[in-house]
Amino acid sequence: xxxxxxxxxxxxxxxxxxxxxxxxxxxxxxxxxxxxxxxxxxxxxxxxxxxxxxxxxxxxxxxxxxxxxxxxxxxxxxxxxxxxxxxxxxxxxxxxxxxxxxxxxxxxxxxxxxxxxxxxxxxxxxxxxxxxxxxxxxxxxxxxxxxxxxxxxxxxxxxxxxxxxxxxxxxxxxxxxxxxxxxxxxxxxxxxxxxxxxxxxxxxxxxxxxxxxxxxxxxxxxxxxxxxxxxxxxxxxxxxxxxxxxxxxxxxxxxxxxxxxxxxxxxxxxxxxxxxxxxxxxxxxxxxxxxxxxxxxxxxxxxxxxxxxxxxxxxxxxxxxxxxxxxxxxxxxxxxxxx
Length: 339
Ligand SMILES: NC(=O)c1ccc[n+]([C@@H]2O[C@H](COP(=O)([O-])OP(=O)(O)OC[C@H]3O[C@@H](n4cnc5c(N)ncnc54)[C@H](O)[C@@H]3O)[C@@H](O)[C@H]2O)c1
Description:
Elements: E1 3-7, H1 12-23, E2 27-32, H2 40-52, E3 56-59, H3 65-74, E4 79-82, H4 89-94, H5 96-116, E5 121-125, H6 150-168, E6 173-179, E7 182-183, H7 192-201, E8 205-209, E9 215-216, E10 219-220, H8 221-233, E11 240-244, E12 250-251, H9 252-263, E13 268-272, H10 287-293, H11 301-315, H12 317-322, E14 335-336
Parallel strand pairs: 1-2, 1-4, 2-3, 3-14, 4-5, 5-6, 6-11, 7-10, 8-13
Antiparallel strand pairs: 9-12
Helix pairs in contact: 1-2, 1-8, 3-5, 5-6, 7-9, 7-11, 9-11
């Protein structure tokens, strides 16, 4: 049994990963600031589910080394999986300083605190946004990295911090994962599948940036959590970078057709100009992850659309958001650090 700390563990990917690791009899502490980029209530809800399965919640900020050290010591952490971030490609256009501070300074803190406090392994989350304009497809790990968003720059810079760390401290075991568009239940409210399904179920118009022919490697979160577990445990992962996608490329229009089929509602669409910070296509070459990690994604975008629709209906998502201010944070074992 390994003691894991998941930064950003109350978020979309983080809480799925926490549940997956707990299901494998690992010990899990989630470390999250419950930032208000989107509803903290949704994050507390995720965290409460992790706690119900035996995980520990720590409210802490990756910008505070002191809080990180305390969480690592108190929970005897052996492996850190770093997911906490300021996400959002478009948000980073308006708020570059947020992306840079949290994703660069925060990652630097996570790396140095982990290394200096006997953590054996750190898995750092980058993004397919580091690539920028597509030079060829599918994109392998050697594809040029010329980000076209501040978010992409922040993730590429965090990768460089890991590279320097590997050079200076070769004994410290790190791995970088670059997830491609992650989809599934509880996806962030700023992401396409969440927006498409929520709007369709509310009979609202969906605004599509571009003509809908742009493609993504939509990756079910169930595949991604496996990749994180493999990256954290396979010796061959040491000091490596992996692209983690589904290894398929599906257009926005094709996804909208899946949404229509699953919900049995025809979407109302409106098209506008493509956002300059968005890349046209992404398509992961996952050969390296298959070879070195034994990563074999099985779940599809269709599964993700079904899962999100089911989740939306189960929790009555629209009403839940409207009533979020009324919900108190209640955690029996939560540790609340002062800011
Ligand atoms: N979702 C995707 O498609 C995708 C794709 C590529 C990479 N990623 C990366 O995966 C990671 C998780 O993404 P997600 O979609 O689950 O996002 P998310 O916003 O749901 O999760 C991120 C979590 O980090 C927490 N956080 C933010 N700032 C923090 C801080 N200063 N200290 C501590 N916690 C903080 C947030 O409260 C949130 O719970 C991020 O690093 C993101 O950049 C996501």
